[in-house]
């Protein structure tokens, strides 16, 4: 078998013939020629037989490694004159427009970025994190489900910060499918207005419920003329439950400060590290954390009452309660918190009374905490990884890859390897 034939089979690239193989230092450069005669516009697919000119120097793309070898694909491309896009370099079947990586390599990087930390991806694939960001953007641009804004009934709007609270993304979540369907940088009402513009009048009318974290910006946009005329506004259960979690954490911190000042440090030692035992869901506790929680229960102090109230509050959102049942539990909870003599809980009882209707709307429309918690956790985890990106587009692309309507396949899952 000739070396060019062997490489054609090994690389398994669509629509090309291998014309030469050159071994360099750590790099194999594979020269290819496109099989098709016609030139194709990379932006719109317009085809023509007429070439404008041929590029003076060849283009190259990084492909998947072969063992320890980096592989570069090299081809001399022509330019065409597209009626819409003017003079452009022709598209190649194995890479996305403007990329210096093949689609296979793009897909691998995007897949890894949602599952692996920054340093590992960069080291394994020998690329910079910026390159990973651009690969993510390209994959999202071509692979996102084009019908993702169809059939939306119950949505949630959420803002999330990346790069340590300096920059924000606004995300729209489909509660029914449990994924992020839209995102943009920014966190004001104009940002969310863009979503409603894209959604259009007809699809907006279908919206039955919109959950919000209740910042004034998003409410303004949702209530704007024609944006969601038939939708009920609900409190976002994740944020509401988180408020109570924060109140519990405040009680814990106060107690910790008191214990630390005691002459006998035994109490402080015992209480150290109780944070996760208190804040995690009881089902997710490790054995040590469960033991620590049991110890706290035996004290019967304010911290235990705070913990009980957190769990009672979570229960309101966890089950399939009717509006009336939930209302009764919520009112009872507020009364208990009010009497608790714990300042953070007295404050949150006030907030909950203030938002009572919106909370009950969420429960009535089946937007439970269980539904949103998993997705929120996933989104927050992946946003943390996006800290390394400097561009909001890359951060957003990573969120969409990790939590959006994309079924990303790895190169070997997409193609069947031909028999030799
Ligand atoms: Zn075009």
Q: Would you write up a description of this structure?
A:
By secondary structure, the chain is an alpha+beta fold. It folds into three domains: 1-100, no CATH class; 101-235 and 368-420, Nucleotidyltransferase, domain 5 (2-Layer Sandwich); 238-365, no CATH class. Helix content is 49%, strand content 19%. It has helices at residues 3-11, 103-113, 118-125, 129-143, 189-205, 216-223, 237-260, 266-271, 274-279, 287-299, 302-318, 323-339, 343-354, 356-364, 369-385, 392-403, 411-414, and strands spanning 16-23, 27-34, 39-40, 47-48, 53-54, 59-66, 69-75, 78-82, 86-89, 154-162, 167-174, 179-185, 209-212, 232-235. The strands form four sheets. The protein has a five-stranded mixed sheet, sandwiched between helices. Strands 1-2-7-6 form a four-stranded mixed sheet. A three-stranded antiparallel sheet has the order 5-8-9, with no helix packed on it. Strand 10 (154-162) and strand 11 (167-174) form a beta hairpin. It is elongated. 36% of the residues are buried.
Question: Quick recap of the structure?
Answer:
The protein is α+β, with helices and mostly antiparallel strands.
Q: What are the key terms here?
A:
four-stranded mixed sheet, alpha+beta, Nucleotidyltransferase, domain 5, 49% helix, binds zinc ion, 420 residues, five-stranded mixed sheet
- The side-by-side strand order for the widest beta sheet comes to 12-11-10-13-14
CATH topology of the largest domain: Nucleotidyltransferase, domain 5
State the fourth-level CATH superfamily of the largest domain: Ribonuclease H-like superfamily/Ribonuclease H
Residue share in helices?
A: 40-55%
Describe the global form: elongated
What is the number of domains?
3
Termini Cα gap: 11 Å
List unreliable stretches of 5+ residues: none
What's the pLDDT, averaged over the residues?
Answer: 89
């Amino acid at each position: 078998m000739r070396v060019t034939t062997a490489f054609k089979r090994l690389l398994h690239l669509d629509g090309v013939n291998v014309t030469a193989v050159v071994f360099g230092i750590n790099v194999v450069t594979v020269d290819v020629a496109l099989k098709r005669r016609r030139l194709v516009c990379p932006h719109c697919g317009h085809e023509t037989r007429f070439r404008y000119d041929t590029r003076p120097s060849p283009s190259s793309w990084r492909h998947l490694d072969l063992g320890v070898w980096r592989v570069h694909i090299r081809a001399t491309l022509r330019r065409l004159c597209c009626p819409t896009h003017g003079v452009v370099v022709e598209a190649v079947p194995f890479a996305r427009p403007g990329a210096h990586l093949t689609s296979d390599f793009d897909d691998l990087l995007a897949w890894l970025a949602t599952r692996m930390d920054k340093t590992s991806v960069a080291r394994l694939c020998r690329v910079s994190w910026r390159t990973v960001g651009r690969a993510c953007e390209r994959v999202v641009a071509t692979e996102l489900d084009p019908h993702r804004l169809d059939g939306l009934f119950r949505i949630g709007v959420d803002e999330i910060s990346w790069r340590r609270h300096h920059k924000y993304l606004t995300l729209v979540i489909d509660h029914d499918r449990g994924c992020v369907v839209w995102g943009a940088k920014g966190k004001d009402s104009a940002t969310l207005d863009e979503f409603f513009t894209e959604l259009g009048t007809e699809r907006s009318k279908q919206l039955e419920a919109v959950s919000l974290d209740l910042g004034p910006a998003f409410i303004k946009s949702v209530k704007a003329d024609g944006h969601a005329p038939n939708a009920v506004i609900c409190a976002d259960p994740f944020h509401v439950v988180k408020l109570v979690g924060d109140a519990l954490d405040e009680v814990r911190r106060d107690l910790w400060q008191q214990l630390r000042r005691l002459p006998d440090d035994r109490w402080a030692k015992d209480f150290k590290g109780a944070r996760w035992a208190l804040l995690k869901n009881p089902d997710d506790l490790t054995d040590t954390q469960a033991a620590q929680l049991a110890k706290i229960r035996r004290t019967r102090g304010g911290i235990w009452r705070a913990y009980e109230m957190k769990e009672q509050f979570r229960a309101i959102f966890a089950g399939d309660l009717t509006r009336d049942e939930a209302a009764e539990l919520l009112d009872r909870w507020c009364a208990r918190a009010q009497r608790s003599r714990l300042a953070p809980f007295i404050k949150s009882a006030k907030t909950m009374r203030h938002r009572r209707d919106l909370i009950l709307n969420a429960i009535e429309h089946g937007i439970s905490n269980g539904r949103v918690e998993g997705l929120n956790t996933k989104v927050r985890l992946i946003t943390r990884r996006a800290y390394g990106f400097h561009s909001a587009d890359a951060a957003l692309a990573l969120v969409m890859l990790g939590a959006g309507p994309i079924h990303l396949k790895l190169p070997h899952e997409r193609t069947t390897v031909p028999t030799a």
